[in-house]
Amino acid sequence: MAIDPQFDDNREQVDTHKGHDVWGPVDEPEKLGIHGTHVAVDFDICIADGACVEDCPVDVFEWVDTPDHPESELKADPANESQCIDCMLCVDVCPVDAIDVDAGRAGD
Ligand code: SF4
């Protein structure tokens, strides 16, 4: 299952984390929701593959620890989403389609 590209219509913003929005539902540690708005990562899909972290030309992503999450205990957090230049590399390389980038969606 890929990230829902309409998450901002279909989910509620329930929190903020390092300056970006978090979209629920969130029920830690098993359910973590979507982090970010312009660059959105579905933490419940992310398997910590790391291609986005390595390939992003402007270092949007930072690892965060997510102990006891069923998919992976690290997640690629779009901590610097305002730096995104919409190259779409991260969307293309993510093996589980956990990332959605939309230039029309305002981020932090
Ligand atoms: S679209 Fe490009 S610049 Fe934006 S987060 Fe993804 S890899 Fe980085």
TrEMBL record:
Binding site for Zn(2+): 17, 20, 35, 77
Residues binding [3Fe-4S] cluster: 46, 52, 94
Region (Disordered): 1-25
Biased composition (Basic and acidic residues): 8-21
Cofactor(s) named in the record: [3Fe-4S] cluster; Zn(2+); [4Fe-4S] cluster
Keyword terms of this UniProt record: 3Fe-4S, 4Fe-4S, Electron transport, Iron, Iron-sulfur, Metal-binding, Transport, Zinc
Binding locations of [4Fe-4S] cluster: 56, 84, 87, 90
4Fe-4S ferredoxin-type domain boundaries: 37-66, 75-104
Cofactor stoichiometry and binding remark: Binds 1 [3Fe-4S] cluster. Binds 1 zinc ion.
Keyword Membrane: no
Tagged with keyword Zinc: yes
GO MF terms, alphabetically ordered: 3 iron, 4 sulfur cluster binding; 4 iron, 4 sulfur cluster binding; electron transfer activity; oxidoreductase activity; zinc ion binding
Function noted in UniProt: Ferredoxins are iron-sulfur proteins that transfer electrons in a wide variety of metabolic reactions.
Protein name: Zinc-containing ferredoxin
